[in-house]
Description:
The chain is of the alpha+beta class and 74 residues long. Helices cover 22% and strands 22% of the residues. It has one domain (7-71). A three-stranded antiparallel β-sheet has the order 1-4-5. Strands 2-3 form a two-stranded antiparallel ribbon.
Amino acid sequence: xxxxxxxxxxxxxxxxxxxxxxxxxxxxxxxxxxxxxxxxxxxxxxxxxxxxxxxxxxxxxxxxxxxxxxxxxx
Length: 74
């Protein structure tokens, strides 16, 4: 069985006056070109993963979970 994951950066910060929300599990992160919902923290980049909007933080968590699964460590 082959599974492919397509990841590309989503340039939501280039779209004027449009909020983009992360669709990660219970994330709730949102951003626009010049605002975001993480307070004073640097805004996360957004990505499209198989067509679903995901923030950089959730994508990093996914990467860790995939590595654990591949290494067989719990």
